[in-house]
């Protein structure tokens, strides 16, 4: 009898013990609270990573967090949970976990968005709060939890946590979003691809077009410097030699190098032979230009390749994030945990989340589930974009069914907002009845987020469900096959740099190159017009000054380029006025030489012949490349004097002796012998004895009173202008300016007041033409 009683007592104790074990199991009636569950996990490992965020923080990265925590030198407990699992206050969660764990150390909570709270219990770790603040301000929003925790440890171990926190708050306190991102996302990669496309075509094409523009402008400048055709109209290549002018034999030259040009001067050259030669030369030049284009194009292509290579080295990111990729075990951990809990109990409440159901609600729901004719399970778990299903609840439902391997109606409840999802996998219930449930039991959470009350109403509604028709229970529970979630590896992988917006960037680069080239050309053209206008107004080298008052075409210190342009222009104008078959320049007066007196025609033709002898020794209609400033200035004076002989025959004998470029001299000014000439030479017309100071007093008085006159223009008569200065021939147009009277050549005779007729005779004599 005693033995029987002992056996019965032991049997009841065993039953009670087993029942308590079942109730204490995860998912049972007395499931642990969130703080108790997290404390239990931290006892196993000081770093706990939720299995609900494998895309953001894989559980396999726990050793990396543990490695950083060891640098602090104190026990550190790290929890990384989804954003919605902290409840109202993260610090309250830390306090609850510490009370359950009862261990000294630093407690840290993180989420996919960053560092949420830090707290020390029983250890001395100054600066923990300051390091948390500095981390918040110093890192951009795309920093991963692993990078955030590493930065927190760096700041805390630096010994300057407070200073860094204050400085970061002062600098970034109100502009956290302005911090540069740590990682390249897909939007940034599209921007990089677009910029690369623009650079690959824009930079080489711009360089090519600007080079071609520069070459063209250089060719134009060289042609202008070498002297283009002396007339824009149709005329002989070289000006005609007048009937009274005869050339001496080639060997009878009288002036050194210039005498060699005599034999090459042929009146009326430019016939068919010359035209053919010019055509042949033009064709050759075109072929040479095409040959020269090839290296430029090749260089542009090479430059584009270098730009593309440089871009691939600069934009070398292949993934977005810190390189943490979840494993297959990380991706299935939560589904395995929830499915295992549903096998033991039809009601599973996620222990990582804040409690959504109290003990009474759980007991009542379990009673209702057991009373249902339909096999039903409830999983109260959250969904977020960082979980294995990418936030797709249909995928989570399908994954749970694949783990359970039985016919069941699965209810997925969202603890945060009370939302409910249903999926019927083979149970005998009418699908239309499930679809037409009341509005307050719709898929999304209603205005009443109380999850316990809504689940009670749902189970009551399911208890009245009608049986399904034949074959209806085997239909697709979701109505469609949900697409698979994005592979986390592909999700973090960035598209190639030379894809996507790279191709539109190539097209825009072409337009950008054309636009830049056009702007550069327009800017250079504007500057060139301004410079030309200034040169015409003030002269190439004089700026404003005394010479500027005498007209825009008479600079005091003309440059070689200005002299060449002026010589070509003035000779063209004179040729158009004298040659009956030429076409004058736009705006130029019609030729009037046919109605001139014989004397004026003679003087004009002699001026044209003399000017042509000076600057067109090759008789090719172009200004000689070796023409000196003095020669060019003399040709300009002759060309202008020839036009004056046509327009004002009575005023064509003299030009201004101070600056012959001033043109016709209508007045004369008196000069004393001591004043010298513009070139600095003294006159020889004074009495020799008086000049030397010898002789009697009467002779010296006569010498002092001797006066002579020199021709000047109207401006120099009122206000004497500066003497014309030219660069010396030895300096090749680059040396110092000297008075024109000191330079060799016929031009110097004008400083003594020589007439134009005398100047033309001196030019012919200078070149040995009679």
Automatic annotation (TrEMBL):
Region (Disordered): 225-285, 657-701
Residue ranges with Low complexity bias: 250-267, 680-691
Keywords: Membrane, Signal, Transmembrane, Transmembrane helix
Basic residues: compositionally biased ranges: 657-670
Keyword Signal attached: yes
Positions of transmembrane segments: 194-215, 294-315, 506-531
Protein's name according to its UniProt entry: TPM domain-containing protein
Protein source organism: Streptomyces endophytica
């Amino acid at each position: 009898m005693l033995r029987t009683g002992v056996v019965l007592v032991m049997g009841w104790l065993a039953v009670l013990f087993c029942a308590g074990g079942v109730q204490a199991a995860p998912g049972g009636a007395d499931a642990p609270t969130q703080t108790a569950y997290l404390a239990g996990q931290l006892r196993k490992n000081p770093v706990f990573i939720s299995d609900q965020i494998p895309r953001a923080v894989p559980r396999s990265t726990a050793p990396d967090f543990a490695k950083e925590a060891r640098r602090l030198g104190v026990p550190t407990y790290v929890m990384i949970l989804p954003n919605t699992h902290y409840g109202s206050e993260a610090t309250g969660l830390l306090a609850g976990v510490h009370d359950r764990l009862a261990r000294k150390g630093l407690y840290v909570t993180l989420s996919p968005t960053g560092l949420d709270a830090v707290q020390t219990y029983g250890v001395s770790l100054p600066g923990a709060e300051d390091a948390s603040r500095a981390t918040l301000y110093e890192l951009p929003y795309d920093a991963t939890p692993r990078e955030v925790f590493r930065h927190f440890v760096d700041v805390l171990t630096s010994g300057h946590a407070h200073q860094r926190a204050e400085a970061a708050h002062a600098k970034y306190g109100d502009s956290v979003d302005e911090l540069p991102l740590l990682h390249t996302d897909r939007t940034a990669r599209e921007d990089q691809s677009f910029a690369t496309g623009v650079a690959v075509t824009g930079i080489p094409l711009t360089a090519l077009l600007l080079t071609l523009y520069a070459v063209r402008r250089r060719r134009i400048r060289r042609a202008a410097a070498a002297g283009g055709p002396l007339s824009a109209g149709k005329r002989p290549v070289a000006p005609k030699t007048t009937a009274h002018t005869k050339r001496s034999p080639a060997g009878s030259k009288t002036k050194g190098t210039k005498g060699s040009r005599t034999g090459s001067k042929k009146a009326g050259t430019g016939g068919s032979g010359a035209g053919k030669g010019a055509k042949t030369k033009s064709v050759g030049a075109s072929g040479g230009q095409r040959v020269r284009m090839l290296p430029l194009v090749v260089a542009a292509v090479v430059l584009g390749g270098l730009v593309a290579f440089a871009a691939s080295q600069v934009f070398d990111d292949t993934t977005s994030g810190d390189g943490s990729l979840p494993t297959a075990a990380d991706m299935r951990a939560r589904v395995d945990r929830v499915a295992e809990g549903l096998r033991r109990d039809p009601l599973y409440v996620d222990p990582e989340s804040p409690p959504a159901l109290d003990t009474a609600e759980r007991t009542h729901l379990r009673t209702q589930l057991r009373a249902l004719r339909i096999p039903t399970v409830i999983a109260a778990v959250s969904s977020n974009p960082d979980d294995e299903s990418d936030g797709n609840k249909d995928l989570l439902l399908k994954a749970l069914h694949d783990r359970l391997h039985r016919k069941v109606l699965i209810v997925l409840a969202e603890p945060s907002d009370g939302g409910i999802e249903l999926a019927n996998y083979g149970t005998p219930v009418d699908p239309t009845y499930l679809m037409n449930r009341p509005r307050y039991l719709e898929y999304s959470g209603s205005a009443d987020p109380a999850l316990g009350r809504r689940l009670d109403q749902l189970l009551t509604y399911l208890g009245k469900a009608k049986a399904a028709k034949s074959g209806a229970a085997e239909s697709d529970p979701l109505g469609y096959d949900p697409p698979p979630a994005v592979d986390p590896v592909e999700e973090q992988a960035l598209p190639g740099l030379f894809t996507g917006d790279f191709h539109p960037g190539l097209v825009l680069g072409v337009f950008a190159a054309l636009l830049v080239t056009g702007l550069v050309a327009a800017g250079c053209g504007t500057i060139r017009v301004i410079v030309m206008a200034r040169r015409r107004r003030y002269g190439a080298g004089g700026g404003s000054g005394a010479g500027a008052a005498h007209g825009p075409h008479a600079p005091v210190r003309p440059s070689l380029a200005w002299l060449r342009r002026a010589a070509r222009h003035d000779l063209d104008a004179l040729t158009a006025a004298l040659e009956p078959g030429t076409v004058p320049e736009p705006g130029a007066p019609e030729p009037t030489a046919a109605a001139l007196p014989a004397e004026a025609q003679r003087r004009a033709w002699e001026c044209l012949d003399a000017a042509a002898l000076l600057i067109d020794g090759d008789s090719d209609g172009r200004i000689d490349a070796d023409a000196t400033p003095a020669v060019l200035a003399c040709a300009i004076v002759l060309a202008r004097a020839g036009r004056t002989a046509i327009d004002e025959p009575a005023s064509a004998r003299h030009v201004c002796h101070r600056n012959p470029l001033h043109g016709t001299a209508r007045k004369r000014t008196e000069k004393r012998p001591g004043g010298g000439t513009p070139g600095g030479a003294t006159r020889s017309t004074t009495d020799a004895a008086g000049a030397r100071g010898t002789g009697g007093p009467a002779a010296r008085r006569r010498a002092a009173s001797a006066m002579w006159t020199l021709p000047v223009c109207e401006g120099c008569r009122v206000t004497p202008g500066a003497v014309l200065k030219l660069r010396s021939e030895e300096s090749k147009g680059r040396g110092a300016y000297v008075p024109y009277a000191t330079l060799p050549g016929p031009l110097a005779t004008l400083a003594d007041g020589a007439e134009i007729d005398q100047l033309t005779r001196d030019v012919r004599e200078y070149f040995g033409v009679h």
